[in-house]
Amino acid sequence: LGIPIGILVNNVGCAYCPDELCTQSEDLLWNIINVNVGAITLMSRIVIPQMKKQGKGAIVNIASSAELQPMPLWAVYGATKRYVRSLSLAMERELCAHNISVQCVTPSFVSTKIIQFPENFLGAMFATPIETYTRSAVFTLGKTQETTGYWTHAIM
After folding, report:
1. Which of 44, 69, 88, 107 is the one with CA 20 to 30 A from 56?
2. SS3 breakdown of the chain: % helix, strand, coil, rounded to 5?
3. Residue 14, class by beta-carbon neighbours within 10 Å (0-12 exposed, 13-18 middle, 19+ buried)?
4. Which residues of 118-143 are buried (b: 16+ CB within 10 A; e: fewer)?
5. Residue 119 has what pLDDT?
6. What is the mean pLDDT of the chain?
7. Using CA atoms, how far apart are residues 129 and 113, in angstroms rounded to an integer?
8. pLDDT in tens, 65-108
9. Which residue positions in the chain have pLDDT lower than 70?
């Protein structure tokens, strides 16, 4: 790339309606896999050589609490987010000798412009506003390989 890269944040995902695996279209399944697995893998592959040359860097991969347990009707989404965790932990071990830290963030419910949680879903109690969440998550960079990003997400 030839430009300094300090931090890469791999924050990708695609939402879809929950359904049984056997009823989901092949196109949808490939889209989930390509976005959640392919994008972070290939973006990391692109920036790592530059970070190695610089002798430092950080990669933050955003997974999801959906990776923490089997997710019926969300099986492929949960499985791809589990991949994000596994990749992150392996990359951390590969890259620590090059002063490149890799962190896996596993948020639960975060309210964004794209995804909002209504009050009847107990949104005020369970969904963290994006500004609050990101302020908290940033402080964990370089301190831990894995984080939920915000204290309430650790107890959900």
Report:
1. 107
2. 50, 15, 35
3. middle
4. eeeeeeeeebbeeeebeebbeebeee
5. 56
6. 83
7. 10
8. 777 788 899 899 999 999 999 999 999 999 999 999 999 987 77
9. 1, 109-133, 136-137, 147-156
The residue type at 89: L
CA distance 110 to 132: 9
Token reading at 128: 């963290």
pTM confidence score: 0.82
Which of 16, 77, 83, 150 is flagged as catalytic? Answer: 77
CA 86 to chain centre: 11
77 classed as catalytic: yes
Q: In this structure, what token pair is assigned to residue 98?
A: 């090059």
Nearest to 38 by CA among 60, 10, 8, 16: 10
